[in-house]
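Hey, resending since the last one bounced:
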Amino acid sequence: MTKIHVTDTVLRDAHQSLLATRMRTEDMLPICDRLDKAGYWSLEVWGGATFDACVRFLREDPWERLVALRKALPNTRLQMLLRGQNLLGYRHYSDDVVRAFVHRAAVNGIDVFRIFDAMNDPRNLQTAVEAVKNNDKHAQGAICYTTSPVHTIDQFVKLAREMEAMGCDSIAIKDMAGLLTPMVTADLVAALVDRLDIPVHIHTHATAGLAAMCQLKAIENGAAGVDTAISSLSGGTSHPPTESMVAALRHTEWDTGLDLELLQEIGFYFREVRKKYHQFESEFTGLDTRVQVNQVPGGMISNLSNQLREQDALGKMNEVLREIPQVRKELGYPPLVTPTSQIVGTQAVLNVITGERYKTITNEVKLYLQGRYGRTPGKVSPQVRHMAIGNEDVIDCRPADLLEPEMERLRYEIGDLALNEEDVLTYAMFPDVGLEFLRQRKEGTLEPEPLEPPPSEAPTPQAAASEFNVTFHGETYNIKITGTGHHQQEQCPYFITVDGQPEQVLVETLESVQLGGEASPTEARARPGRRPRATGPGHITTSMPGTIVEVLVEVGTRVAAGDAVLITEAMKMETEIQSPLAGTVTAVHVAKGDSVNPDETLIEIEPA
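The structure tokens again:
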């Protein structure tokens, strides 16, 4: 019999795909004793977006999560997803950082490293694979499966053979968007099995409703392992259900050997856990065959919907999904997987929200078009490249060859906030978010984002009171609202009675208040809701809500048209804000870390 190995994704990719990666460690540990008895080949528990979500939203130390899971799962291989030279961040890291990260991950409990490169550029895998082998762990090379005019089965086989030659112990077909169809799966797996001497695993998402069929065809054609998710966190943009696949293979030559009743018990546990995270459920995580066109992967679409909601632009989701394939084509058909999914997706969002394609271009798109993420699979649009980087040179070497060693600098920068090498690596992955996390940990002020109570427990909404008492300077007044007038120019008149006497008051929203002549930039920073509205060509704004990463000028700075004056971050991507004209900076209304919105004046420039 050829036992099929099962990797369950419930502790990583399943909740990344369905719940925006928000599951907390406290909800993982109670079920670990039963997960550990299930007999999985491995459990995927770390990597991908979990590291980012732990630090950014959950205010958990991701390294402590790994240590806790290692202790709670002593009999099961622990697996992580590693982005090659990107590790778990959104840029390439120097080789010494890659080696240090892999070593600490191995020491803290990872047994299987699934390593991929978003561009399928094997040069970006070499250092990570070598580091895994040097730590005596299992290196699984991953092919990012995608479809385009430039992707073929022969190319995927060639890439897999290069990975095998590097020393990979197994190969995974990583179908992050659920693009595989059953017959293509059969052909691809058969070709890989025929040309490789190492096992082939398959990872696919159920978005288009084809994943279980694809996995069966993969098994029939020689695949050694499949990725599944426990039923209560399966389906849609997640993976085929573990219990169903185990049942389908029972009493066949491919029997998994897993205990179906134990798996069902685990499924019931996570069904209750899922209710806790209801606020992160997305309407875009069900069955959707549009993925065969827009190619948006499972983890990306739930996060994309959350990010659009934060921009108050969820209604533009369909426009964004139509824009993504066009941007992908113009960028040379990269597979849509982190970080290229964020690069393409964020640029598509900007193109839609600003109403003008490539009016605003993220720094990551510029780096991508300079070749700093690796070789593009297809030809890049010369017009888009010129809009982004002008006549700058495009590198053709391995991007990491241009990077100096970083670990010593990182240790120096983070200083005594880092208690160990793991903290230095957290800072390396996310300099701003990681720094704030470590600072708050030292101050004892770490607080996870709040969870909304389940709908059945939520308080019943009540209408706003129309009559109430107000105590002011020791005197109590009875206020009764009797009506409202016509809203004009950001002001609305309210008709009230104060202790029975009729009065009229004008209510003006904070966002609409203009700064007076006596207000200073310092006051504006202290009261970000009262930044002036942009009314002139020298009033610098942002295209979408975000956070200030860096202020590059100060009052008195002379700038030329096109000079960078600010760097903002939105949807995890940075954008350089440039001056539209030459002149002198006369006011700065923001500081690093401020939240900003479109139409606010962030910097004022007096034209030359």
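The chain has 21 helices and 20 strands.

Sorry for the duplicate.
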